[in-house]
Amino acid sequence: MKLNKLLNKVSVIQVVGNAELKEIDNLSIDSRNVNKGSIFFAIKGQKTDGHNFVIDVVNKGVSAVVIDNDQKFPDDIFKHNDCVKILVKDTKISLAEFSNAFYDEPSKKLKVIGITGTKGKSTTAFFVKNIFKTNENKCGLIGTIANYIGDEEVKTSLTTPQSHEINFLFAEMIKKNCTHCVIEVSSHALDLHRVDFVNFQSAIFTNITSDHMDYHQTFENYFIAKKILFEMINENGFVIFNNDDPNGEKIVADSKGKRISYGTKNNSDVRIHNIKYDLDGTRFEIHWQNKIYKAETKLIGIFNAYNAASSFAVAMANKVEPQIAIEGIKNTPQVPGRFEVVSKKNKKVIVDYSHTSDSLKQALEAIHHIVKDERKIYTVFGCGGDRDKTKRPIMGAIASELSDRVYVTSDNPRTEDPFIIIDEIVHGIKKNNYRIIENREEAIRSAIFESEDDAVILIAGKGHENYQEINGVRKHFSDKEISEKYLNEWAK
């Protein structure tokens, strides 16, 4: 695409250079991944500022640079290197706007469903995708565990990628005949404008509890960020919200979209009732428009009845037949690292992504409901480094109170001292039922070998992740793989 044509579709403050002669084939925020046809966007992040790399990319011969701070960049630098300088108000917003225009507004050619909330985004996304698949609609997915174009998996590292990556994925989905896309939308993505200019047809609110306080500082800021998604829905769209969450009504209050509520309350549009679950799955009823549908899923726990109900609601908004939605829920495969059961003989290991105090509590309460005091419960967990520190002692207290024994270990310490993280976790523990084993593999092994033959062991915090990050270095590490390894050894 010619740069001047792209510039005609976006808002800028100033353009210096000859845009008519520039052919653009790439948008980038990484100075290492640019070429002659690139536009480089200087994004200011939490750790680095892209403006520090402007001279580097200009010297590499990029076609254009987008900046929102030009005080230290004289026009002569760009003119001398035949590079177009584009000044904007905010490069993060401009990246989203340029991306939308560069890929020809791809979200308008899909029915895009956004999902936000503290917990349940990934599982809900998998439910929604499988319902559309059951309805013979090819559906893409952008999320924490992986990105999918139909059944083709594309690896991911962020819950919500950067805006140019999102629009690229949308465009690829259209090329491969997708009609729908479900996308997990994090609070960071909303606050950092990664989904600006996306044409969301529907939005789902799962729940909200305290999380990401390292970034948002206050719960109010966190809530405001989440609320943005629902304000993006127009009068032709739908907002689906958890009627049982105290913030459900509030988060959709300013949305123009049509509302569908779900939950156990009698006034819920999609009412869930008679929830029963064990280690084989969850069974419940969905009440919708004066009819009752019996639903079941392989996924375990009350929270998965809620996730399924929100998915049913979005299916109704998209005119899917109720029975097809029920079938799609039933056939949704196990979501990696979401209350995933690994067994050997009568011993059960549950690998779960629960990395907040509320999600850890829900996971342990679900296990208590299943075992009914007939089995011992062991918990192996740690807390991530360079993240919200306030939850560490709270999670320690929850694990100790709801487990027979706790192994406090490392999660992803990142750049923090793992023993300092562990000390902060232990500070919240009041009972003498814990053991500190910093090495995560050794902690998992000890829990398996030291527990009773019929014990249930929760390994919490990392779920689907297949790495551990220590001092900025990622090494392969999978809770599920390690659990299977030592369960097999134990069972010999």
Automatic annotation (TrEMBL):
Binding site for ATP: G117, T118, K119, G120, K121, S122, T123
Localization per Swiss-Prot or TrEMBL: Cytoplasm
Catalytic activity from the UniProt record: UDP-N-acetyl-alpha-D-muramoyl-L-alanyl-D-glutamate + meso-2,6-diaminopimelate + ATP = UDP-N-acetyl-alpha-D-muramoyl-L-alanyl-gamma-D-glutamyl-meso-2,6-diaminopimelate + ADP + phosphate + H(+)
One GO CC annotation: cytoplasm
Residues spanned by motif Meso-diaminopimelate recognition motif: 411-414
Domain annotation Mur ligase C-terminal: ranges: 337-463
Residues at which meso-2,6-diaminopimelate binds: R387, D411, N412, P413, R414, G461, E465
Record domain Mur ligase central: where: 115-315
Cofactor: Mg(2+)
Pathway(s) this gene product operates in, as recorded in its UniProt entry: Cell wall biogenesis; peptidoglycan biosynthesis
A GO term, aspect molecular function: magnesium ion binding
Residue ranges of domain Mur ligase N-terminal catalytic in the record: 23-103
EC top class named in words: ligase
Superkingdom assignment: Bacteria
Coiled-coil region list: none
In-chain residues carrying the UniProt-annotated modification N6-carboxylysine: K226
GO biological process: cell division; cell wall organization; peptidoglycan biosynthetic process; regulation of cell shape
Main location (coarse class): cytoplasm
Keyword list, A-Z: ATP-binding, Cell cycle, Cell division, Cell shape, Cell wall biogenesis/degradation, Cytoplasm, Ligase, Magnesium, Nucleotide-binding, Peptidoglycan synthesis
The family this protein is said to belong to: Belongs to the MurCDEF family. MurE subfamily.
Annotated NCBIfam families: murE (TIGR01085), PRK00139.1-4 (NF001126)
HAMAP family for this protein: MurE
Protein name as it appears in the record: UDP-N-acetylmuramoyl-L-alanyl-D-glutamate--2,6-diaminopimelate ligase
